[in-house]
Amino acid sequence: MKLQTLSRVAERIYWMGRYIERAESTARLIAVHADLLMDLPVRRALDWRVLMDITGSSALFATLHDDTTERNVVRYLASDARNPASILSSIANAMENMRTVRDTMPRVTFEYVNDLHLFARSGLQGPLSRSRRVEVLEGIARRVQQLEGFLSSNMTHDHKWQFLRLGNHIERADMTTRIIDVRSGAGSADEPFEPIQWRGVLRSLYALQSYQAIMQAPVEGPAVLEFLFQYEDQPRSYASCLNSLMFGLRRLPRSGPPLGVCNAMIRHVQEADVRDLEGAGLHEFVDGCQVQLGDLHDAIASTYFHYVPRVPARARRKEAKGQ
Amino acid sequence: MPIDRKAYNAEGIWDELVAPNGRARAGAGGLFRVLGRLSGERLAARQAAADLAIRTMGITFSVYHDQTKGAIDREWPFDIVPRLIRKREWDEVSRGLAQRVRALNLFIDDVYHRQRALDDGVVPRDYILQSREFRPECVGVDIPHGVWSHVCGSDLVRDERGVLYVLEDNLRVPSGVSYMLENRAVMKRVFPELFRHYAIHPVDDYPRELRNCLASLSPRDTERPKIVVLTPGIYNSAYFEHSYLAQLMGAELVEGSDLVVDRDDYVYMRTIEGLVRVDVIYRRIDDLFLDPDTFQPESLLGAPGLMRAWRSGKVALANAPGCGVADDKVIYSYVPDLIRYYLAEEPVLPNVPTYRCVEKASRDYVLDHLEQLVVKPANESGGYGMLIGPHSTRRERETFRRRIRANPRNYIGQPFLTLSSAPTFVKGRLEPRHLDLRPFILSGERTYITMGGLTRVALRKGSMVVNSSQGGGSKDTWVVDN
Q1: Domains of chain B with bracketed CATH
Q2: Interface contact B226-A1, CB threshold 8 A
Q3: Which of B230, B253, B266, B272 should we substitute to test contact with A (largest number of A Cβ atoms within 10 Å)?
Q4: Which candidate, B119, B28, B111, B58, places its Cα nearest to that of B422?
Q5: Between the CA atoms of B165, B167, B173 and B179, what dihedral angle is there, to the nearest 10 degrees?
Q6: Does A1 score more than 80 pLDDT?
Q7: Mean pLDDT of B293-301
Q8: CB contact under 8 A, B58 and A110
Q9: Rounded to an integer, what distance in angstroms lies between the CA atom of residue B316 and that of residue B301?
């Protein structure tokens, strides 16, 4: 009889997967955004506030800072312990989850996570010049990739592995839709700079080069939307994330309910006319995707993490009566 | 670095490796030759390599930290000079340990059943019934092989004359065995050449033996019973060990919340595949936290109903609840009598002479000689709550005088033993440091005793306190062929 995966362990590994992914995508997001701003005229409407919208943290940010200055925003997203989704908070949370399941993963994993944590902590503390910032953020992203690469080639691809990947992919899908969503807020004044901004979107997702190779089209809204929503072979596309989630779920026992949710999501995105989406319509579509991601998380959690083991006899009788 | 005979001062101490004339004791010659060929710097480099190995292997123990109100992980302090025991001596010690643990298990089973030894006056009935570790809930429970303490860690010390004594038997949840295993792994990494000079008996069969021992307790007759290790969680000082043993045994490491006792009285664990039945629980939490339905209702560490499941024989708990009744320093003083009573044999290993404060004559002696004795509470572990007479202040002695008078049943006195020493690498030199030895005894269907055990060493000069929480370190322990 092989070792069984405890619900508690599965849950912590899943969250570890989410936090690691979140740390990387946030690092990447800041770096690409800073780069993009350099291509735009000074004092454009598209400023640092956008990042608050993407990460869904405008409300909390407002309680901590008056201005969305570059300094405030970067600090908030990168190292602020009061922001539970900051890079440093995410890595610390990944560490904490890792600590409690350390014995269930390859021994060296802890060293990778520990190294990532130490690097981020020392790199993000104190004043962060623009040039150093690029270096630190890239260092974080690279270390996360190293960790994922190590796990991918050394961790047994068992149930625990699937939970790690579910965490990665659900977080990745979430970030992809958030990044796309920013474009839905752009007004007509942005038009001359549209291509630059779409390029920024693609680069945040490591997708600019492959977009050009695959779509063989100029960088324009409709084609980018199709690429990022529906193109299955592009690792950070929404469709690819959903496929990975589906394949992962298929490898797990009792996966009926979450698999049902996931399959409906795949149909939903593949049947949508994403090329035509813009403005409020785009925002609404993204919103729908995020609600579905929430449903998928809930289905995973209630199937594997918090399911009620057995229905007590009394409750069963009540149910029967009600019907 | 050769041991400097003039500077190596173990006067009045029995040294494990150095004879009084400054030469190597029998068997230690090979070790001395290798050490002698290395300069102080190269020895320091080996020590640094060992420390690094311990860091990267993540061998830690947690200490509760007052300032931060949380646990901090500390690396396990390790000394690179091994401690040697000759196989011939070890065989004799093993025989003595097996004998002790057999008698102790017979005694615990007796206490919870017919109480023959109490009827026959071997141990006064009151001492048992007043013991904090006596559990009425265990009375009448029949358990596999009649064994209650499946994993026992006995502490051995040697006095200045070289006599080896049993200082105490940890029958409840002894820890330290993972460090015994890791010390050997570290030693192989940093001192491979030493292994060519000796036929050293391996220690790494322990996890397999532990698994076999636990499996022999399974209530279900199946090829591969489901065994789990129950830990209080990552903030426990021995969490590293819990996780380490679970991994090496191929057992699930569970917390109380992972377990459910269903209405059928079976124990299940919550897994992603649903509920899975558990046969044997190697629990690393104290009795009183096991089951909030039976013991402390506010405890979240155990699982409600666990005692019910255990009493009905549907799950095995190792060690069994209530086994601590024999892990009491007053009861300890009766072990030689128990060996004679149950086994009709003479004890192989002597006890340290012990004065029971509950008896008037002994109490008077202890109160009159506080300055020379060690006074211990009957039920503490980890070296806490002790009075070390020769190192105590008048104030401390007065405190203990009051405590003993107020609760004589809870105290014993023992002569202050000068523990034996062994060369230890401290600040670039080899100096004598005091040490003890904790072997582990497994009892199930059969008995297994570790080859050697965990040697703990007091790293502070002159100190006899070897506990890791109080500045102790450890050494690899070699049982070598003669």
Answers
A1: 88-184+200-343 (3.40.50.11290), 355-415 (3.30.1490.270)
A2: yes
A3: B272
A4: B28
A5: -60
A6: no
A7: 87
A8: yes
A9: 18
